[in-house]
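Ex. 9. Protein: Double-strand break repair protein.
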Amino acid sequence: MSSESTLDDEDTFKILIATDIHLGYSRRMLSTNQVDFILLGGDLFHDNKPSRRCLHTCITMLRRYCMGDKPINFNILSDQKVNFNTTQFPWVNYQDENLNISIPAFSIHGNHDDPTGAEGLCALDLISASGLVNHFGHSHSVEKIEISPILMQKGITKLALFGLGSIPDERLYRMFVNKQVTMLRPKEDQDEWFNLFTIHQNRSKHGPTNYIPEQFLDDFIDLVVWGHEHECLIAPTRNEQQLFYVTQPGSSVATSLSPGEAAKKHIGLLRVKGRKMNMQKIPLNTVRQFFIQDVVLADYQDIFTPDTPQVTKKVEDLCYAKVTEMLEQAERERLGCPLTPEKPLIRLRVDYSGGFEAFNTSRFSQKFVDRVANPKDVIHFLRRREQKEDNKDEVNVDYGKLLKTTAVEGLRVEDLVKQYFEATEQNVQLSLLTEHGMGKAIQEFVDKDEKDAIEELITYQLEKTQRHLQARGVTTEQDIDLEIQRFRDSKKNTTEEENEIKEAINRAKAHRLERAAASEPKPAGRGRAQKSSAATQSRSIMQAFQSPSQRSSRPGANKSYADEVTIEDSDEDIPVMKTTRPPPRPASSSSSFTKLSSQSQSQSTKGVAFDDSDDEEDDPFKGPSRSRR
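Predicted structure tokens for Double-strand break repair protein:
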């Protein structure tokens, strides 16, 4: 870009966007481009419980390249106790008087490093507690999600950073449809804010509800940073219905040998000035090369058929030629990139349907053991299934109409309970509880994490049945069984049954709240207004059916739950000059927020321009304003 002074002035946010921290490579770009902060779209760690070596490396990188005396040139205006409500240090790390942060990092959690266990913690919380990363976008509740933005200001530019950590796709899909997801916006000067949303969910459709359609997101958003999908599509694409842009950074390393991983890996340098943006994609040259190719043996009828003599040898020779071809391509592309690992990842997928035989892949792989990084799985044999006709009902989905419905149509857990007891034998039918009551209790357990709902329903029904038998004066075993059956049948599908279910669920909620209050530690130090989350013990459905005598006492229950690339190959460290650090900036609360449901009212103007051409004019942010609706 031609005008450096216009590009990087006191009003321009410079944000390094990635789906992995990549500090080992990115340290040169952090110092060269003088970014304001790093934004990570989830899956900082590949494993939910990363190894000590992995944690040590991550902490070392963050301390080495994100700490220093460089002043922070933007302010946070929102209530940080709301933005960082999962930590006992509810303020951004660069405002901590005990830390010296030069480049703050903000991250949501992904599906690989998501919070688990009794306390609902993840590896990212460990890094956050140490003050090296700002973990945001963690929702505790499974009944309602309110996404409150981190409001930032640099000069005249106002940035609202929204984030939502990974949630099971089916559950989040249902919550969007049921209008249980709300995004908060400042009431004042809404048109002056650039709205940036970070999400970590399935973007491509893997099932009827196993993804999040872009149309579910609010239309006031300007740019969506979409994590979880591994294919690198970092150039922002426009959603013509919602009129926002979506950038998909993809995974920074190949974690599987699939076609989506073969695309060139990039990170993004996002510049935001006013309501306009510019994305500069920067290739990663330390990523191991990955090449994948498909071979359909049936397409080589002119060379061999299943009946050809020594056909297996000819197929093996063909595969050898294809793998050698990919290795030669890798060697050509590696020239001039000394940081690229020498051995590439190679995958040849061979479709041998049509009567062909598979050869010994282990013996074949021995030929490339010194040339590839994955010698054991270079060849992958597969048979193509016949493609079924596309379901015409799923071609055009009216998401606007879908969001107006009150519930997701489909099979629910209570339906499964009902179907089970309708199909099961008589000797395993319920004798005390009703199918409807059991289904409701299990639904509360699964959907709303009410871990005591099943136990409380059983206890409540047992107590009521005992009182009924005592009032009737029934004593013999045969009479007791008959009276229990009559008493149970008399309540089926009645108001009394509904009231009993509600009472049992309310008792379960009351017990959870009592335990949460009893186990809540007293806050101390800075940020006293922030209450700590109560601990709970993880329980399965089978444990929920056990009586109190069958398990130990439980602690408190959980709260609901234009390409311009500058790359330097030198690995030399850049010395940092010590300077006097300005005093930490106090956080001021945003005056007020307004709620918007997952489908908000259309705004009159948006005015976001994306410029990624190679030949920019003097104003890199110049672009026509766009009409909203």
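Check your answer against this statement. Residues 480 and 486 are 10 Å apart (CA to CA).
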